[in-house]
Design goal:
It holds the Pfam family HSP20. This is SHSP domain-containing protein. Belongs to the small heat shock protein (HSP20) family. The chain has 143 residues and is mainly beta. The chain has a single domain, classed as Sandwich (Immunoglobulin-like), CATH 2.60.40. Helix content is 8%, strand content 40%. The longest helix has 11 residues. The radius of gyration is 22 Å and the shape is elongated.
Length: 143
């Protein structure tokens, strides 16, 4: 079952506001969508305000790691912050990929604050038709 809401999310947000993002806190998760489109698996990560040079994408065995850093705005003597709600620092997310995905041919694109990762599905995992010979009849079924 997919849990669409996290009952502790508001408590976590409150704790972050009160105690701040210290070194003891875990990196913030980045929102994502994941879906299959034809012969590839697509994952989209929201990273608004993150410079493309501050995004890292690594694969080790079957684990895809996305790490991004949103850096603070330039400051100076004439700058006074009135509201600061956007989280700064390192954001990280790990996905465990199944054996049906081709980790050797992953591609990524970053556009308008969205990192799109495309992972091809291996040939052996794609659906195929298998012929069945019967008593005088030849039928095809989809495996």
């Amino acid at each position: 079952m997919l849990m669409r809401t996290d009952p502790f999310r508001d408590l976590d947000r409150f704790a972050q506001q009160v105690f701040g993002a210290g070194t003891w806190s875990k990196p913030a998760a980045m929102p994502m969508d994941a879906y299959r489109a034809g012969d590839e698996f697509v994952v989209c990560f929201d990273l608004p305000g993150v410079d493309p040079g501050a995004v890292e994408l690594d694969v080790e065995r079957n684990v895809l790691t996305v790490k991004a850093e949103r850096r603070p705005l330039p400051t100076g003597d004439d700058v006074r912050m009135h509201v600061s709600e956007r989280r700064l620092g390192v954001f990280s997310r790990q996905l465990f990929l199944g054996d049906t995905l081709d980790t050797e041919h992953i591609t990524a694109n970053y556009d308008a604050g969205v990192l799109t990762v495309r992972i091809p599905i291996v040939e052996k995992a794609k659906p195929r038709r298998i012929e069945i010979d019967g008593a005088g009849d030849r039928r095809e079924i989809k495996a």
